[in-house]
Each structure stands twice: as structure tokens, then as C-alpha cells.
Amino acid sequence: MELSLASAKPSPRAAAAAAAAAGVASSSASSLLSLRGRRRRVGVPSPRAAAAVASSSVSSASSLRGRRRRRVGVVCAAVSSGEEVFGGRRELAGVQPLVEALPPVARAVVELAVVAAAAAAGYVVGLRAGGTRTTAVAGAAALGAVSVAGAAAVNSAVPGVAAAGLHNYVAGSDDPTKLESSEVEAIASKYGVSTEDATFKAELCDLYGRFVFSLIHPGYEDLQGTEVEAIIKFKKALGLNDIDAANVHMEIAKRIDRNAGVGQQQAFEKLIFVTNLVFRDAYEYLLPWKRLFGVHESQIDDVMRGSAKSLYASLLKSIGRGLDIGTLIEVRRSQLAYKLSDEIAAEMFREHAKKLVEENISTALNNLNNRTQVVEEVKSILSFNGMLTVLSNFPGEERFVRGLGPITLGGDSDHEKRVEDLKMLYSAYAMEVLSDGHLNDDKLAALNQLRNIFGLAKYEAEAIITDVKARVFQTY
Questions:
Q1: pTM of the complete model
Q2: Can you give the residue ranges of every domain in the chain?
């Protein structure tokens, strides 16, 4: 994203506008001097008349570049994705276009010119009206004071214009997560305001709140797992400290009506999960869930564990039988980021590994008439189990997902119902490896590994091997 007028240094065009504005202010003084030719006596102008003079000076300066500036603005054309999150573009009104058009230095030049011109015009009016130096000074003071008030009004509009500029810039971005802190600082610098200014800070908090709320997916949509990282990055780009950001999270929570249905309750729980991970160890003193919402620590623990398990289950789907090392490391990192315990993570991975094995078993059982297919599925199971065993003893295995190690289906609740099917597959594989009539150590090791995977008793496996040997012997 590129910033227009990112620097406080006035551009040639801005300097020209300042000079033109000063010229307009001078011309207003000249118009007042023309009062000398009038026959009727004029008193010191009323505050309303003086305000009109100052207003005409400001509006004239604004008109010099108003039309072109409104087309350019602070940002490029707004993008729908940004507007969906942050709302549409904010238009400027009153003296705001002048503030937006001029950098701080040029703006100061215009203000001084307006005040000086008004003071000079007031001096002439006073001299003409009263004919004495005293009345001339009084007239200058009157118009000068009104002009100072007008300049103060311009200055008071600066934070609001800066906030609008920030809003339009972020709302017009293609991807808000790519916002950088330097861009926010450049916008503040452009208008000559501090990022700690109350109005500017309020806009920062509003943008942050809209962004967080958009990521928790109010309703039944699940978290994607990337929300915490995105929020932390956006928070850093905006330059918000933990206290201000935590207050925004609490305000979001207040807007969620937990009694309005399951969807709102789920949104509240997702907010708790995401918020606690954003602030990590500081959440206990930054986030008063119990005091503000009556949520107890045990309830928060349940929410954190349930949400972490849901996200982790989705991540485990990326792990296939190939056991890519990079994926194993990334899933482990995510587990730690979600604050999911090693015990739960290990159990979940073992269940995932079993499901992969069960898929092989199901395919093999559906192709019992095709011995080649059955053997291929069993070999896939053995290969997968062997890799799990090797990786569980691999140097630096603490970097990998928890739960690596040999698989066994024994002890599962439905094992007894499936044991006959498993025996058939074991027999088919034994027939394949013993088809030449020889049983060496490698073959025996593979058969023993398969027996452990299927959860067969030793005597059951030995009986099957004996039967297979007898059938193979009969063929010779």
C-alpha cells in the first residue's frame, strides 16, 4: 500500500496552494480597504461579520484544490474486502478538505496569513470608523481575534481528518493483515498528529475492534486457526498497547448477547479462546472474564481445551501416511500455540493414525477377491507403522507431533466384532510372504508387527501361520 502525502514536508503543489490561500487572505483585506470610498460611516464590525470574513478566506483557500483532492484523497480506490470489515469511505466536510489538502507546514502558513490579513483589515476599518489610533487597534483586535478563533477551529479539525484518513486507508486496502506500523505512523505524520491523540487513538481502537469481530465469525462457523496470528500482527501494525487492545476485546464481548441463541454463545466462546491466546500469559490481569461476565476459570479452561481440540483435529487431517517431516513440525508448533496439552495431543494423533489404518483395512476387506490389492493395503499399513516407530526414536523428536509410535487396534471397543475380519487379512498376507515355503527373520518380523497392529493374540497368529504353511506345503 502506498501513502499519498506521507511526509509532512510540503510538496510544490501544496506550497502553491498555501501561497494562493495567503493571496486570497490578502485580497480580503483589500476588499475591506475599499470601504474608504463609501460615504456612510462604518463602526467596528460585529463578531458575526468578522467571522464571515475569516470563513470566506478559509473556504476560498479550500476551493483551490478541493475538487482534485476529493478525487485523490488519502488512499487509492476502496476495495470491497476492506470495506466489508471496516465500513465505507468517510467523506470530509466543512474545513476538513482544507486540512486534508495541506501538510502541517503549509497549513500553518495559511493560518498566519489569514490572521495577519484580518488584523490589517480590522485596523483600517477601525481607523475609518473612529478616526483614531485607538479605534483602529480595536478593530484590528476584533477581526484578528475572530481569525485566531478560525485558525483554532481548523487545528481542532486536524485529529478528525487524520482519523478519517486512517480509516479510508485501511478500509481501502486489499489485505488489512499486510498493514505495517510505518504506514500508520506516516498517516499521523502527514497530518501532524500524534498516534496517542485521543481522536486518532479512538479510530485505531475502532479499526482493531472491527477486525477482531470479523475474525471470530459470529454464528456457527468454526475458527480457521489463523485468527490469533492475524490479530497480533494487526494490533502491532496499529501500535496499540495490550491495555487498549484488551479493552477493545472486552467491549466486543459486551456486544455479544449470549442469551440470543447457540450461535451467539459460540461466538462468545470463540472470542474467549482467541483473546486469551492473543494476550498469552498476561490474560489473567488484562481480561476480567469473571468480573464482567461471570465466567469462572473452570469454564474458561473448558472453552480453551474444546476450541484447541477442534482446531487441532483439523490440522491432523494434513498428516497422511507419508508423514512429511515439515508437516509434523508445523502441527506441533500449532499445538503449542493453541496451548493444547501434550497428553490430549498425543491421544488425538493416535486416533488419527488408527483412522488411516482403518481406511486401509476397509479397502482391503472390500477387495478380498483381489489378493494383490489386499496385500498392497496391508503393506501400506506396515510401512506407515514402521515410519511411526522410527520417528518416535528419531533425534529431536520433541519437535514432532505428540503420539508418534507403533499402532495397535487391540483394546478398541469394537475390536472383538472386527477380529475375524482382521484374521482374514492376516491370513492373506501370511499366504503372500510364505508362498515360497520359507519363513525367514524378515518375514517373521513383518508378521509379528502386523499381529501387534491388528491386536491379535500370539496363539491366534501362530495358528494362522501354521494353517497357511500347511496349505502352502500341499501345493508343492
A1: 0.71
A2: 12-192, 203-295, 356-475
